[in-house]
Amino acid sequence: MFLFGCDILQDEEQDFQYEEQDFQYEYCSTDYIELWGESYNIEQTTELILDSLDGIIPLQIGCLENLKKIDFSYSTLSGAIPSEISYLFNLEELNLTGNQLVGEIPSQIGDLTNLSTLILSYNQLSGEIPLEIGNLNNLLELRLSNNFLTDGIPDEFINLQSLIVLDLKVNQLTSISSKICSLNLDFNNWGNFTILDNQVCPPYPSCLSVIDISTQNTINCP
User: Fold this and answer.
1) Is the CB of residue 74 less than 8 Å from the CB of residue 51?
2) DSSP assignment letter at 27
3) What's the predicted TM-score (pTM) here?
């Protein structure tokens, strides 16, 4: 069984490598790519801090392999977060807050193991929080508030031992494991942790503040 599991992992890694190679060949074969009417050098661009953007995030953004920072906050971007963002292995900061992004958070975001900041708040994202975010061992700040995220906080979050800020308020989350208490967070400080205004049912982990508990919509709880 173990060998079979290893074979599956190797196949998945191989498939990912083939997909990346195909993507590089089709979209990244020149020195420059165009994003929102501007040209960016594939090798030399390390930051994209842009505002007043609209339309979708072009999948060609995955060509900028040396990017360390993306800040497209408070624009009117729509559509889904492209899975090609997972090719940005050097990315440390991703801030897409305050847009009109829809769909699920791509699970491939868990491949960005250099991320220290991930901010996707104030969008229209839906579905479950990807358990793959638990792979981001260097993550310091995770903000997913004011979306339509459902289900619970993945148990894999216990791996995020560097995390300082976890903001999940104003979603449709329905469960939270007591394992969350093993994180090195100040659970009584709203600036560090909050799940205000969700739909989490009791019993609640002992580390949650009275405010976090009292603002849960429990109308559909058993």
Assistant:
1) yes
2) H
3) 0.89
